[in-house]
């Protein structure tokens, strides 16, 4: 009896110490539901979907078919990932090869059609591959930012659109965390100072004219697939969903742009929060996602093949003179 009495406080003390250590070091986030996937892959490679450039963007690279803003690349590279650009309008076999070789997918923001663009079509193929892989126990994380968030919602709704117009362009906002945030994989173990920044400071970068409301997440039954974790409010007081986490898949989406805080300085981007706590908050999302990608065991057939796909085969070009959104961009023919 006394032995048990002694052990319990010791166990409690160890847990306390582990908790304190975890708070400061936390080298690898493990969600209870994903322990079976906890295999550290310390060479994570993340695919970023490219999209058709606007006319002004194309003026810098007239031959190009698609582009990726360099801020997304740097955002992932800053957490120890390498990037493979994913081209548009390619045969299915290309997407299958790339998918089987990368450890996660980032669907970035931008201005392409969800329905008819090469971005929308490639996104749909990759989304189906991600669903199939995860259903088969092959852990594969997907992240959508802004337009990528909207594409995830569109695809998960069976290619139906439940967005409504709103006013949140060139606006910094804060997050209102919903009750599910505290049990989510994304926010549950986020550092307290990051959560405080996100909820108390206008630290998220918003550049969108379309919004998903909580009402429509329910009306569309998308709430069976995604939990809304946080909302923000637009210029007219409309509350919109700002973060989603898929209930049964490692899929996340944010309506805001965490990569802009640290990497975008366009002269017209007057709203982007560049102060230290906002930078740290923006980088938290990349840290989380790259650590998810570390659980995927996909890889290229060889290091030689890997080298031919990596983004280092391309050089970023200065686009700050033609686009207020992107200082540097990668172009693909
Ligand atoms: C819900 O989605 C529909 C499109 O299916 C849209 O017309 C409507 O404005 C949306 N309503 C809200 C409250 O978001
Ligand atoms: C913008 O800068 C790029 C890269 O230096 C250059 O190729 C392009 O001609 C410039 N465009 C304009 C309109 O100044
Ligand atoms: C910035 O805004 C000004 C005024 O609206 C506009 O004339 C200019 O083209 C914009 N610059 C870029 C790079 O988009």
Automatic annotation (TrEMBL):
Main localization (coarse): secreted
Subcellular location(s) of the protein: Secreted, Extracellular space
Keyword set, alphabetical order: Hydrolase, Secreted, Signal
Top-level taxon in the UniProt lineage: Eukaryota
GO terms for cellular component: extracellular region; vacuole
Endpoints of the signal sequence: 1-22
EC annotation from Swiss-Prot or TrEMBL: 3.4.19.9
Molecular functions per Gene Ontology: gamma-glutamyl-peptidase activity
Top-rank EC class of the record's enzyme: hydrolase
Catalytic residues identified in the record: 146, 257
Single GO BP term: tetrahydrofolylpolyglutamate metabolic process
Database matches in InterPro entries: Class_I_gatase-like, Pept_C26_g-glut_hydrolase, Peptidase_C26
Catalytic activity: (6S)-5,6,7,8-tetrahydrofolyl-(gamma-L-Glu)(n) + (n-1) H2O = (6S)-5,6,7,8-tetrahydrofolate + (n-1) L-glutamate
Similarity-based family: Belongs to the peptidase C26 family.
Protein name, per record: folate gamma-glutamyl hydrolase
Species of provenance: Daphnia sinensis
